[in-house]
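Data card: per-record layout.
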Amino acid sequence: MVYTIEIIIGLVLGIIAYVSQYLGKGVQKFAIEGYKNRSKYSGKGKNTGIWIFGTILTSIFMFIQWIALLFAPINLIAPIEGLGLIVLVFFSYYVLKEPISKNQIFAVVLILSGIVLITLFNVNPSEISFNTLKIEMLVFLSVVVIVIELIIYSFSKYYNLRIVGFILGITAGTFVALQTASKRITAIPNSNLSIIFIIITFIMAIFSLIFTQYAFTKANANTVVPCSTSSSILLAIFIGVFSLSEQIVLHQIVGVVFLIGGIILLTGFSPKSEIERRKIENKMNRNYRS
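The structure for this 290-residue chain is written out next.
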């Protein structure tokens, strides 16, 4: 196990980054619900301020996570995204008054267990050097994965298959993973290489946003989110191992299985009936009016 001050700093910043991202999403959703339910009242300006605050939280995630990846390896930082999802679920429960099921509580336990296993058995140092980078493998993996996903997407769209939303969610997660890997590579002490991957980071961020929004037009959020989050974590770890010479031990593999299983259970199997949805909206209307 490797625990240096740099690793600890990276973990703390990673937690702050993902909590900020998902808390920001929750705040944005709260503001949007306020727009819908207070259109007849005088809270529009207040809701705009809340939405801006949520947007700031989601925006600063990119840079906080970037700093975290300068201190710690990918297979420690990427899995912390599961913690962000937990924050969003509890924010939705306590603030948005959305129900939480027993399955989701079990999913929270799985995610936390997975994160603990992954971080507890870290064997990677905080430093990264040019010698550890296998750029040909990175390019090969990136091209192969994206081409396969686009082929499956084209096939699915042509035959009007229901997996289109799944594939788009996975592709969005792929670009998130490539963004994460690019941030980590900027930690290599090579100015020319850093500039190149800084540019690549922003390009990947744009593509991940485009594909995420497009995926939402083809499938529900409870389909897109688990696909995107799971693929971003798995591919980021995969790239870390095969392109950045990071190591992953058996206990961490078990942790990844727990983590991905928890993410799918947490976000993929929590549909709300129309009756439940209306009850929630009515309750929010009463809260806003009081």
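Known properties of this structure: Residues 5-37 form the longest helix (33 residues). DSSP finds eleven helices and no strands in the chain.

See the next section for split statistics.
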